């Protein structure tokens, strides 16, 4: 059965590309939009009270298949294929392809060439922008924002160590469905870190367990290497070294570095055993 998280299909409507594969009353081609908000919530239902599934960041593209006329649009993120409801106000017609991405965990967008000005926005790691020119230490975007050049990188610039990216999020509050330094969950941390290193990564921990890396025997937990991924049911952690992990978790309500053995024991006491260890590369 197709995963509903990745399949834009409902009984009344489905994506045109699914015609012949799923049942629906009608099939639509969909229209591509760009995320204009800094962070757009992707929710389970067309309501601001509905559970948060994931988030879309500025500059991402999304294919919209339905709009409810009450402020919500239903579609599929082009980056990881996630399906859900987004606020209509967060969507705009696609502009020119972005040229740069934010590489700092957060950065201010100033309305002019001075860090003394009140920031117009706060952008997060992975946000995509179009730079039209440089002005001293700033990159000027098509919105007229002035961003510190050292907080940006070219679209094709990637880091070598995704674990180091995850470590930068230590102290970030835990947020179910979050994927930014304002709030992040366990699989969001893995996705953001791997994307920064140029590795495509699905959104949820079960998808990551299924698709990333090669499986190690659980007996190999004593020979963990930096970058290995440890999975429990509904949770994933990143191995830093032989003795510690970094993970966004609800126990600390934050991204934290934790002793591996102590974390395994703590989570086991709460009723969950390790179900898989995966090695990337």
Question: What can you tell me about this protein's structure?
Answer:
InterPro entries: NLP_P60_dom, Papain-like_cys_pep_sf, PG_Endopeptidase_C40, SH3-like_bac-type, SH3_16. This protein is mainly beta. It has three domains: 9-92, SH3 Domains (SH3 type barrels, Roll), CATH 2.30.30; 100-154; 162-279, endopeptidase fold (from Nostoc punctiforme). The chain is built from four helices and 25 strands. The strands form eight sheets. The protein has a six-stranded antiparallel sheet with strand order 20-25-21-22-23-24. The protein has a five-stranded antiparallel sheet with strand order 8-7-6-3-9, with no helix packed on it. A hairpin with a 2-residue loop joins β21 (229-232) and β22 (235-239). The chain is globular. The mean pLDDT is 96.
> What structural class results from the helix and strand content?
mainly beta
The amount of helix comes to: 10-25%
Radius of gyration: 20 Å
Number of strands: 25
> If helices are DSSP runs of H or I spanning 4 or more residues, what is the number of helices?
4
Strand content: 35-45%
- Span from first to last CA? 29 Å
Task: From the 3D structure, determine the CATH topology of the largest domain.
Answer: endopeptidase fold (from Nostoc punctiforme)
User: Quick one: CATH superfamily of the largest domain?
Assistant: endopeptidase domain like (from Nostoc punctiforme)
Strand order, largest beta sheet: 20-25-21-22-23-24
Mean pLDDT across the residues is 96
Low-pLDDT segments, ≥5 res: none
Form type: globular
Q: What's the domain count? A: 3
> What series of H and E elements makes up the topology?
EEEEEEEEEEEEEEEEEHEEHHEEEEEHE
The name of the CATH architecture of the largest domain is Alpha-Beta Complex
State the major sheet: 6 strands, antiparallel
